[in-house]
Specification:
- Helices cover about 0% and strands about 50% of the residues.
- The protein is an all-beta fold and about 120 residues long.
- Strands 2, 4, 5, 6, 9, 10 and 11 form a seven-stranded mixed sheet that branches.
Length: about 120
Amino acid sequence: QVQLVESGGGLVQAGDSLRLSCAASGRTFSGYVVGWFRQAPGKEREFVAAISRNGGSRFYADSVKGRFTISRDNAKNTVYLQMNSLKSEDTAVYYCAADLNGLAKADRYEYDYWGQGTQVTVSS
């Protein structure tokens, strides 16, 4: 199995940028598809972005398209989420998730491995 640790969250102002990292240990990370999700207080956990095993396929939630970029460096066992033009509604705990099976996907129930999350707070 794989262990995931997110980092890079923090408190920023609207319009700022942050880069989140998801570092993996355990099995070879290049075998996993990876997704980023977020959960705001009182809301369901929602899909943000996902990336295929080799990074060639990526897709995003409409709410972040054009502002966020997901990428991965399999040599470093790390997936990134670059977040630009942050808005107050981006405030949430951000989680990365990984799965050995299938293609990159938006359904959180299809991911087997999760990190503990990192808090992102955007002040307006």
